[in-house]
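Our preliminary data section would be incomplete without showing what the modeling component actually yields. Below, a chain of 332 amino acids is followed by its predicted structure, encoded as C-alpha cells that our downstream tools consume directly.
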Amino acid sequence: MFGLINITGWHWAGFVICILIFLALDLGVFHKHAHVVRFKEALCWTIVWASLSLCFGLVIAPGVVPGWTRQETLEFVTGYIVELSLSMDNVFVIALIFGYFGIPRLYQHRVLFWGIMGAIIMRGVMITTGTALVRRFDWLLYGFGLFLLLTGLRMLFAPPEGVHPERNIVLRLARKLFPVTNELHGQRFIVALSGRRTLTPLAVVLLMVETTDLIFAVDSIPAIFGVTTKPFIVFTSNIFAILGLRSLYFVLAGAIEYFRYLKVGLAVVLVFIGAKMLVEPHGHPPKWFQVDIPTGVSLLTVGAIVLTSIALSVTAAQREKKLLASKAPQQS
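Predicted structure:
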C-alpha cells in the first residue's frame, strides 16, 4: 500500500531544511518591514509557490528519490491540487476574521506567516498520526471516506456561518489567562501594560486563524489519504499548499464575490473523494466491492469540479454586475 519509493531520513531533513530557509527568507528579507501586499505582488508570489511545488513533484523528487515513478508524480500533483483547493475556502474564512477584528492590511501578512508556521507543525503531527493509524488499521480509510462524504453533503446543504469568536475555546481560554487590549501595537502580538503581559488584537486573530486551520485540516488530511497513503507525498503536498496560502489570500480576498459557488465545488470534491475511498479496496473487502479509480482520473475530476465552480461563480458575478449597471438611473 505504501509503495516502493525509498524515502530516507535525509529526504525528510532536506525538505524540512529547504522549507525553513524559504520561510526565513520570506520574513527576514522579502517581508522584513510591514507593508500592504498589493494584488500584483501577491500574484507573483502565488506563481512562485505554485512553480516551486510543481517543480518539486515533476523534477526534484523524481531526481533525488529512488523509486519515484510517474504514479508518485500523479499522486503528488493530485494531492497538491486537492489541498490547495480546500485551502481556498480557508482563505475566505480568514478574510472574514480580519474584517471582523478590523486588522489593517499592513499587518495581515505577519499574522498569516506565523499562522502558517503553526499550521505546518499541526499538520505534521496530524499526518504522522494518521499515517501510523492507516498503516496499522487500513480499514480506517473507509471511516475517512464516510466522514468526507458526510462533510461534503453537510457543506452542500448547511447555511453559511459567520465569525463567532465567543465560540472559540482556545480564544476563551487565552482571555482567561491573559488580559487583552483593543488597541494595536504595531506588529507585536504581546505587550507589557501595567506590568502585565497583554495580548494585542493581532494575537487574538492569530489564535483564530490557527484554530480555523485546525478545523479545515480535519477535512483536508483525510482527503489527501484518498489520493495517496505515502507519508512523504502526503506531507510535501500539504506543506506546499499551505505555503501558497498567504499569497493566495491576498489574490482572492478582495474578490470574494467572484467565488460564490466555490464552496459548492469544494463540497462536491469532498463527496467525490469520500466516495472514492469507500469504493476502493482497503484491507480485505469482498471482490465485488473493489473499484480502483486511477489517480489520473481523480486529478482530472477534481480539477474539472474546481474550475467549473470558479467559472460559474465568475459568470454569475459578471451577469449580476451588468444587471445592476442596466438598472442604475441614467444620468442626464
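The mean pLDDT is 82. The two ends are 72 Å apart (CA to CA). Preliminary results of this kind motivate Aim 1 of the renewal.
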